[in-house]
Amino acid sequence: MPKISKDSSLQTVITTFEMTPGTCQDLMDALTDAYETFISKQPGFIAAGLHVNDAQTRIANYSQWERREDFQAMLRTDEMRERNRKINLLCRSFEPVMYDVVAAFN
């Protein structure tokens, strides 16, 4: 479960994917497989969530890592580089962005 807290030292990454409704499920399957079989087993991984909009034209991914370097190391692996090439074919664009939590509300 992601932990959203201003006082946290965790690295938060939000990635947005833009696609057509025709490729949404294929992309969701690829992302789910990536998390289940590879990403979640990488050092520093804490939690993630996948969200899809009702038009099936955008997927938002929220992930947390112990350190920024852990996320960067995962991206640099041969396996993730290959997965990202395939993911790129299923969407118009995707962009992972690292964020710091500045406020959280319950």
From TrEMBL:
Pfam families linked to this entry: ABM (PF03992)
Alphabetical list of InterPro entries matching this protein: ABM_dom, Dimeric_a/b-barrel
Source taxon at top rank: Bacteria
Protein name stated in the entry: Antibiotic biosynthesis monooxygenase
Domain ABM: 11-102
Gene3D superfamilies: 3.30.70.100
Keywords: Monooxygenase, Oxidoreductase
